[in-house]
User: Fold these one by one.
Assistant:
Number 1:
Amino acid sequence: MSLWPLSPEEIEALGLSVRIAAWSTLASLPAAVLAAFVLARYRFWGKEVLNALLHMPLVLPPVVTGYLLLLLLGRRGLVGAWLEQTFGVVLAFRWTGAVVAAAVVAFPLMVRPIRLSLEAIDRRLESAAATLGANRLWTWLTVTLPLCLPGMVVGAILGFTRSLGEFGATITFVSNIPGETQTLSLAVHSALQVPGREPGAMRLTVIIIVVTVVALVASEMLGRYVARRTQG
Amino acid sequence: MLEVDVKRRLGDFGIEARFSSDKGVTALFGRSGAGKTSIVNMVSGLLKPDEGRIEVGGHVLFDSGAGIDLPPWKRRIGYVFQEGRLFPHLTVRSNLLYGWRFAPAAERRLGLEQVVALLDLGALLKRRPRSLSGGEKQRVAVGRALLSNPRALLMDEPLASLDVLMKNEILPYIERLDETGIPVLYVSHSLDEVSRLARNLVLVSGGRVTRSGGADEILSDLEQWSPGDETEIGTMLATRVSRHDSEAGLTHLDFRGGELRVPLVDIPAGVAVRVWIRARDVSVATEPPRGLSLRNVLKGTLVEIGPDDDAGPLAELRMRIGDAPLTALVTRQAVRELALAPGREIYALIKSATLDRRQLSLVAAMAGPDRDA
């Protein structure tokens, strides 16, 4: 079994995986920061319920998450039908749907470190900014956000790696379509379904390991750099 | 000009403070827990008074009657906190300039170069807060507040977290704040700092202002403080440098009751200087003493012996030296043996070496005609 060169199908699956994981991370990050901020700073009625809801994808079997997404965002789903009629956007069985599935599953993993990071910020620094003339928004942008950057980096790393490995919710929601929704993990699954394609599965597995290790090393370095910048 | 009249309940504790201050340093002076920090927090807008009015330089910042309550970022009040609160993710330079952009261009009297020169920050600009010493951090914090070009500056025990050496390193810089013309409200429970820095004094006790006015006047009126208070008793003397005797290594200071000799200081003749004389550094004699090493022997009259309750081994002797007050702390036993009683002629002895530079504060920069020694 030789690893090199990769077949066009493998390159396609690899590219798709990275693209889906990247978009999923980018799309989740602002929402995760907002959710973390609300949970870290505000007390309101129903906060525990919201917290539980946000963490649902972490504990639900991914296949259930995928099924719920299908019910909600499928072409006949409550939101899905509306999206198609109003914007002509279809998520089901498209790579964009895979992004949504990955984002939903990765979301709680991203919220947690950002929230911890926000809670660790010395709020007296924000009062100091206010006495210097900075209003709330400016204080948030120039003090709060930069100081929770380490948490955002950790959250993004966790989100990206979780998205990269997403399987259950994706296959349930957007199926396993080569070139559209077949990411590396789905490709491994397909390969294992066909007798005699185990070597292919093994090649894909090695690719996944390499990609994950590279992502983790790069993110570790980024995390250290950011921590150094923010802690002075 | 700063006018404060605020009320606020904090649990069981109530704050009711009313005072006004002019330019220069006004010290809010009292024990820890007296409510000083809450008062400045109300001025800054970080704590909302239940009712009252706050006005700075003609701008109303808070008026419960008129429904005015400016948020902190619109008050333009600089604040130097006890712990500095520098932004850890920014360089010293960026910290300094943080508030600068918010000051209207027409009101930017102080720029980066001036503040860097005033506080000697040139070597620190590229560094980050974590690598600074405590004293350097506080200097940057002062500079950052100044550069926001505030209408008034609040300083909440800015030296409390520093050791003695660092304090002495930073005090001269704070003395120089007077040059900027910005009114300063300085919170402290240290008599040392207050006597050295303050032009006006507001005494705070139990959430209330018990007295306010000129610092010289209040500080020399030490009936205000009883022993056992954490503030040390002593006398503030208004003096003027008369001449330097470099051969003897002494500087002569004139005051209303005579002359004081202190170790040589580099303050030009004619300059007004406040001297803080700790009561425990003063001894007394009933006859003119001879064969003594002491350089300061001042003839005066014993006015009063306190405290009245006869408690404790020490007595405060309140004297008049010419027109000036002076307090000595001696043992009750000495009072008995010397048969000291009010009205008696007495010689006060002060060791020159106890009057080093730390006991002296310059009032030159702020001295008006009313401050003549």
Number 2:
Amino acid sequence: MKSTVASIGHARLDALLHIHGAHRRFATPEGGIVSALGGVDLEVRTNEFLTLLGPSGCGKTTLLRAIAGFEELDDGEILLGEQPLSGVPAYRRPFNTVFQSYALFPHLSVADNVGYGLDVGGTPRAERNARVAEALALVGLAGLERRKPKQLSGGQQQRVALARALVNRPRLLLLDEPLSALDRHLRQAMQVELKALQHRVGITFLVVTHDQEEALVMSDRIAVMQSGRLQQVGPPGEIYDRPANRFVAAFIGNSNLLVGTVTAHRGDSVDIETVSGLRMHAPGGRFAKGDRVEVMVRPEQLSLDPAAGDGPTIDGVVETVVFVGADRHVQIRTRTGDALTALQRHVAGAREPGLEPGAAVRVSYRPEGIHLMQGEPA
Amino acid sequence: MKRTTADRVLSAWGAGFLLILYLPVALIFVYSFNSNVVNMMAWEGFTLDWYRSIFGLPTQLAKSENYVESTATLVAAVRNSVVVALFATVVSTAIGTATALALGRHRFALKPLYQALLVLPMIMPDIVLGIALLIFFVGVGVEPGLSTIVAGHCVFLSSYVFVVVSARLAGMTADLEEASADLGASPWVTFKRVTLPQLLPGIAGGALLAFIISMDDLVITYFIAGVDSTTLPLFIYGVLRRGIKPEINAIAMLLLAFSFVVAATGLWLRSRRQ
């Protein structure tokens, strides 16, 4: 309890929502207990676009539902400013949700769906109509007021769900996998549009997604969850470049992950040797000689250009080359036996030498491109 | 599409099934217009006399001994049946719907047991239910009459409504109700604006079913009806006990037409809502 009080004391003034020690357990059909939330502390800042990112079953949706008021916490609390929300039913919370299924009312027209919150709230008819029209214009659906949800495409239904939530001007907009039902092109367009929309309406967005690319594109901050616990919270660039642990490194983007030991410490940087015997040089002043570390190198940080400069190098043999459009994923087996993936930008018409499987390559890297994380003790 | 032997066999099987199902009804339909007074299975000519006879209109064929009961008794029986069915439908629809909501949207102890006990009246033999109700009414000292028939019908009709409404409710995900709450609607407003409109086809279907079953019930009604509370099925049964008269065919056809009208009205109302 003491720590809770202390953290409230230190809370940033612009925090909208505080979550302290959130616990939620479920009984499984087999008679076991699973912990959907295992002690989550998180604050949601006013006007930010925060994404809860994690694989399915990591507890992100449970947390969203607890904030919305559909789920009670077994332990811990959620505060809106200073006000505890436990015991406050969903219909009294100043939040609105965009459901994964959209949950549009099939018996109501588009306009009546969007106007639902205003209608039950007793907003005068004229104002209600004006705000519904405004919300529909905001999401680009003006003119479809009289349609029923069934007569709309998936993308249009999603916009109705957005308009229905936004029209109430909530303190916080909760979005549960909002883009998961859309096809790839529409999804990518909507990622940018959602972000722009959030900027325009000035409402705090809390999005749940399992799509790391979506999280990177849209978010001001990302909260990565796994097994009911927060793994890391930070801006997308920080999460991508400096993941807190192996899970975050592997979940977000592509990465080469090796296990090694610090062999020498030189001021801000260290020498490391991987289990297989590969020697590398990386920044990591916080580690001491003999520490076990996880080594992460993003594929784009490895260069296959022989004229790449005078950085450290790794020798190896090309195993496979996978063409994925803009890039080629070149899989390399190092002399010591480690597998590394490097990216090579695809240039139309150019035929670079040395990229056939079996060819010997020299991979160069900048030490700053390598990120070290605390490893498991040997 | 090439028709295989299997297709032909299945088509014949389907046609045969429909024939067995509807041939008896078709025969009654034909007999109800047959002017043969002695043997209704031998066609003699077309007549509307059996229908005229039911309504007490002058006829050439129907002799007084062909039709022992007076039209007034028949009209009274129809009136009793409709009154019973209306009351029983309203009460059992309310009970069945409320029960379906309670079981479909809430968790509580012994729910499976409760569910099993609810559908039991549907599979319980009518005779057992009839005797049990009779003993109960006699035990508590209620005079048999229309009110006991209504009460008795409600016992098993509630189960039918419960099953029909539950099926509809199971097809409705809870997320619409959550969306309503999320938009600021109290539980009562959510029920009124979201749950009820969604559930209405189920409730209407359950009510129609209850109405038709109540109109049609003979066995249970037989035990709990009083002297002045003869319903239409009881009346027909009484007439049949004195031998099959041609008028019975006409009454059966009118009953069938009535059921069709009720069912068709239900379907029509449903299609208009969508």
